[in-house]
Known about the structure:
The protein is α/β, with parallel strands linked by helices. It has helices spanning about 15-25, 60-70, 120-125, 135, 150-160, 180-190, 285-300; strands at about 5-10, 30-35, 75-80, 80-85, 90-95, 100, 105, 110-115, 130, 145-150, 165-170, 195, 200-205, 210-220, 225-230, 230-235, 240, 270. The chain is built from seven helices and 18 strands.
Amino acid sequence: MSANDILIVGAGTAGLTAAIYVQRAGRHAVLFEKGAPGGQIVTANEIQNYPGYSSINGADFAYKLYEQATSLGAEFINGEVLKITPEKGAVTIQTARGTYTGRALIYAAGASHRRLGLANEERLIGRGISFCANCDGAFFKGKTVAVNGGGNTALDDALYLSRVAKEVYLIHRRKEYRAEQPLQKAVAETANIHPILDTTITALHETSGHLSAITLHNLVTQQDTELAVDGLFLAVGMKPETALLSGIVDLNESGYILAGEDTRTSVNNIFAAGDVRSKTVRQLTTAAADGTAAAIAAVAL
């Protein structure tokens, strides 16, 4: 492998966009992905918030990105990355299939949404269960939805959905939300947001392959109730896939890579793109923007 190669860990929107820009700059992009190309967006039934597509299936969107990158000459290696070692003017990646060295590394391994760990959960993702109110809220216009979580994201999601859905139930396992006070005030002043505190979700129910209801367990009364909903938005946190770079680049307290809009990390030839980067907005469009910025910076080394 040439030292002029640009290594990219993660073949989601950020990684694939980076590969496209690397190839167009006359360098060779080598993509490492342990799963299917496309990342989390593969599971989306429909995407309506990416410019140029009024509606597209997540798997189709992912394949178009992958096809574009590989048609330009990007190399795709399917396998898990075991170790990353920065060297002077280079970065080495170790996988079960071999060791690869490149001039720079674009790290775009993403972040995984925390799950509830309930039966049917994985099957119902994209069929009533969502992790992104901005992405999927429009599909629930005039319907009844629930949001699970008590932080800023959960309350932001509830407020966004209150402008779209008929009723929004905001479920949190503690006796009070931990979001910032302005968000809590806004939620309290929104008539169609109904707080449900001291409560966990213990079961998911489906009808014809789509979420239709959830079982709620009150931690104070120990009572179980069933709530009919058309959608459930999970906002119980995310886990950035940054363990491989722990001790190599600077991370924040939540494990996200400290990098600005230029995607530069504390190591000169390592760049962070997409959901692994510390930032406030995580969307397909911002992932593509990160991939673009990272590729331009990497090929300039």
